[in-house]
């Protein structure tokens, strides 16, 4: 294994689009970091040209494939690899992972291929729609082994993936996502205009994430309904998804609709975290829930289900937040009552040291090692 980088060595990073989300932001950070270290970085985007994000370094060449159709993406990605074969290609998410595997085979190039999976594969397979479950399972177990390495985003997710896909055992590595940065802190200081953040009589519980089955918001709503029997409080869930209507209906049936808000997506969730009294995560499964890292950085107390995978590692087995069993609304309610009544005391120096595990400074050398030096 080499411990140096040859200037100008090329790395391509494939993403479906530049639409803002946690995975895109992580990929952009990695692109910027690799470019600063002297690598020639190309960001390959499946969709048509759009304005580039401000955070993207001008050292990075952007290639738009200009398609959304998976088959056309495969054809154009294959063409790209034949014409400009990079030393290594990094991808994220299932469709891009599969497209990259197929395109490398069709192009015949020797580009090193590293794919990444952000959810816990085994758990994710249980909760995705049934019509996709078999395809996803087959892809992870029998197609992913054609890549050179598979990056998971937590230790527990790596262990779970090895058990779920035995052919991947020797190709799976884990690297924590680079969530911590100066921009996160600056953005968290922004003021929040929503009146619920300025009413001391009603503590505000915050949840952040897509409104999907995996996040198990019905569990949180039931726990919140129990919590309201003990004290006045409010719940705000930031995010959008196909479960909105059923969640709105559930708030009505539980009689809590006046104290629950679902404002949809917001541009700066970290500011909401800094001003909230508690952050709650009720998920059935994760990989490395960014929201918990951001909440810790913003000083927001946390109650989270101990779901696979990520919360246990982020909260250091409960040292930096409260972990509760999955699916137990009464225990979740009691934990939220306790966190609101007695704000947990956390050693700030210990916390800052812990949060550095989730920084670009830690993640970048590991990605460069697996892409270039392996």
Query: What can be said about the biggest beta sheet?
Result: 7 strands, parallel
What's the alpha carbon Rg, rounded to whole Å? 21 Å
- Beta-strand proportion: 15-25%
N→C terminal distance = 6 Å
Structure annotation, total helices: 15
Report the uncertain regions.
1-5
What multimeric state do the chains show?
A: single chain
CATH level 4 superfamily of the largest domain: Glycogen Phosphorylase B
- Architecture per CATH nomenclature, i.e. the level-2 architecture of the largest domain: 3-Layer(aba) Sandwich
User: What structural category arises from helix and sheet content?
Assistant: alpha/beta
User: How many distinct beta strands?
Assistant: 13
Arrangement of strands in the largest sheet: 3-2-1-4-5-6-7
Overall pLDDT confidence = 93
Compute the number of structural domains. Answer: 2
Shape: globular
CATH class of the largest domain, anyone? Alpha Beta
> Helix and strand succession?
EHEEHEHEHHEHEHEHEHEHEHEHEHHH
Helix content: 40-55%
